[in-house]
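About this split. The held-out portion is used to measure sequence recovery: a designer receives only the structure tokens and must propose an amino acid at every position. Recovery is the fraction of positions where the proposal matches the reference. Here is one held-out target exactly as it appears in the evaluation file.
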């Protein structure tokens, strides 16, 4: 009878160890999947940050172009003022000034056209920046969630009366009330 109880106890311990090994394999696989997810999210995060830096540089270039356009516009206005004042100048000087005004007008129109194109591009880029920031925030949140450790405690009751606590060397200990404690930690 005592041997039968001992065999039953041994069978339960073997079964518990097999379940623990199975759980350990499952957790190892989950860790591997989570690590792959973390790496993928990190790549997404880096890509989003790179896109944001590139788009911000393009926005700075657009601002410089707008400032250049404003400068050209002021120069053109100054030439129009000179032209109006030059009605009394000699014909040759007036023609020369008119040619200068025409060149400045063309230059202004060219810059204005560039600015309009860059302005359209800026609107598109701003939408991309907003989308990249959303992706970056999502990737960062997912990275944090994926990197947060989880602790799992498994208890098994064995209602045997044994006053000694036994350490089994496999992450389990048997308490005096027959409870088997399993500890899992992340390494």
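Reference sequence for scoring:
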């Amino acid at each position: 009878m005592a041997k039968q109880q001992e065999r039953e106890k041994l069978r339960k311990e073997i079964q518990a160890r097999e379940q623990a090994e199975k759980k350990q394999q499952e957790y190892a696989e989950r860790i591997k999947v989570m690590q792959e997810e973390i790496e993928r999210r990190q790549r997404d995060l880096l890509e989003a940050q790179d896109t944001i830096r590139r788009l911000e540089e393009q926005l700075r270039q657009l601002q410089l172009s707008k400032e250049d356009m404003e400068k050209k516009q002021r120069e053109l206005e100054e030439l129009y003022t000179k032209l109006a004042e030059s009605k009394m100048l000699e014909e040759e000087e007036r023609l020369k000034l008119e040619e200068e005004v025409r060149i400045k007008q063309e230059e202004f129109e060219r810059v204005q056209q560039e600015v309009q194109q860059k302005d359209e591009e800026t609107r598109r880029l701003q939408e991309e920046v907003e989308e990249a920031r959303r992706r970056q925030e999502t990737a960062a949140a997912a990275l944090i969630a994926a990197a947060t450790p989880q602790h799992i405690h498994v208890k098994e009751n064995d209602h045997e009366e044994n006053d000694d606590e036994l350490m089994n060397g496999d992450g389990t200990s048997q308490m005096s009330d027959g409870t088997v404690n399993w500890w899992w930690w992340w390494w």
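Annotator remark: Residues 150-187 form one domain.
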